[in-house]
Amino acid sequence: MRRLVDIRPTRGARLLLGALPIVVLLLLYLIASEARHADNPADKVLPTFSAMAQAIHGFTTDRDPATDRIVLVADTIASLYRLGIGLAIATGTALILGLLLGVVPLARAILGPVIAVIAVIPPVAVLPILFIALGLDEASKIALIAIGIAPFMVRDLTSFTANLPAEQFAKAQTLGANSWQLAIRVALPQLMPRLIEALRLSMGPAWVFLIAAEAVASDVGLGYRIFLVRRYFAMDIILPYVAWISLLAIAADALLLWISRRGFPWAHGGGR
Fold first, then answer.
1. Residue 240 resides in a domain
2. What distance in Å separates the CA atoms of residue 49 and residue 34, rounded to the nearest whole number?
3. Could you read off the pLDDT of 106-153 as tens digits, one per residue?
């Protein structure tokens, strides 16, 4: 008799098994929403699929007065712009500091405690400070994303680099490598897959910080739209927006995984 831990589903079976819980949840929601609306047709807590379809038609055809773009398009472009810039700043900072602190023990001794302190500060708590210092425009929203995820990424990359086999650095030094060459030619190639993995793990918190910033001070964006319509209990808009954000996050994660597997197949068991 095969043990449960020895059962390895095929790719098709994995897709089917992964879709099954989602289908079950959708069916449960369908039953619950129809039951609530049978008792109270004006119920707004669990909108029916037809109500959400009407709402989707509205924000995919109506135009935003501020941008003259379709509402969903305008919100998506604004949010992805902020998210992309914030992630780029955090990734670049994490790569540089992760290499520096991981390869140079002196730098780790000087900057490590500061980064550890910053990492434990709740990023949303500094949002008012960012608004005061940077204003209510794009800079404060982007800064919140960067500040929110960069310390985690720096600590993760520093730990990974510092724990690389010492023999690799010793051999490179024997061949005459200096500190710069150790970082670029020994540590960096091995660090890149870890950087992408850290970025994938940071996508969830990055979305949280983006939505929080847009909810407080913005006139366009996915988070802004959700918090704008919540005062009207417009769950028929909120739920599709949440689903859209989830799809964007899943697509970004899949893209990063594809880049990692294509660029660094050795880090994924040869790409299998």
1. yes
2. 9
3. 999 999 999 999 988 888 888 889 888 888 888 999 999 999 999 999
Distances (CA, A) of 41 to 33, 47, 54, 58: 10, 10, 16, 21
- CA atoms of 125 and 218, how far apart (whole Å): 18
Residue 101 belongs to domain with CATH number: 1.10.3720.10
CA distance 228 to 45: 16
pLDDT one-digit tens code per residue, 169-211: 888 888 888 888 888 989 999 999 999 999 999 999 999 999 9
Sequence-ordered list of residues with C-beta below 8 angstroms from that of 75, at least 6 positions apart, any chain? 64, 220, 221, 222, 224, 225, 241
| Element housing 234 (H / E) | none
Report yes or no on 163 lying in a domain. yes
Please name which of 116, 95, 83, 84 lies closest in space to residue 213, comparing C-alpha atoms.
83
Number of structural domains (the chain) is 1
> Would you say residue 28 lies in a domain?
no
Asked if residues 86 and 145 have their Cβ atoms less than 8 Å apart, the reply is: yes
Residue 243 counted as domain residue: yes
**Residue environment code for 167-197, b if the CB has 16+ CB neighbours within 10 A, otherwise e:** eebeebeeeebeeeebbeebbbebbbbbbbb
Q: How far is CA 257 from CA 190, 201, 260, 265, in A?
A: 16, 11, 5, 11
CA distances from 136 to 83, 204, 226 (A): 16, 23, 19
Which two tokens mark 194? 């870890």
Provide the residue range defining the domain that includes 194.
48-268
**152 vs 115: CA distance, rounded Å:** 9
